[in-house]
Amino acid sequence: MFNKERARNAREVFASNLRNCLAQAHKNQIDVANDLGITASTVSDWYNGKKYPRIESMQRLADYLQVPLSRLREDPKEREQLPEEIVILNRAAKKMTPENRKKLLDMARIMFQEEFAEDE
């Protein structure tokens, strides 16, 4: 019984996260089906919590929606809530080249030596 309940919960969490991510990306089920070459019925099953996608399909969805895989898999109630400023910085950093991300991190380490020392 426990495994069935856990599987149902995982499907529900994924479905809710998928609906939220699609809304934020201004996409719908048909967009996903057409753009990723997945049948509309499969996308509908995920969207409605009837089925749980394989990890490869979930990663394709995450890439398509430009979100981390954890955004689709994890229950937002259990996720650590980050301050909005950190979320904004994270989004900006994702758009940077690797070289610019390294420069930003190096600069932050210099500016905030005490805070970084606590993590090392």
In total, how many beta strands? 0
- Classify the secondary structure makeup into a structural class: mainly alpha
Terminal-residue CA separation = 43 Å
**Relative strand content:** under 5%
Radius of gyration: 18 Å
For the record, the CATH class of the largest domain is Mainly Alpha
**Bulk shape:** elongated
Largest sheet: none
Helix content: over 70%
What's the number of helices? 8
Q: Report the CATH architecture of the largest domain.
A: Orthogonal Bundle
Structural domain tally: 2
Which stretches are poorly predicted, pLDDT < 50 over at least 5 residues? none
According to CATH, the homologous superfamily of the largest domain is: lambda repressor-like DNA-binding domains
Average pLDDT works out at: 88
- Give, in order, the helices and strands: HHHHHHHH
CATH topology of the largest domain: 434 Repressor (Amino-terminal Domain)
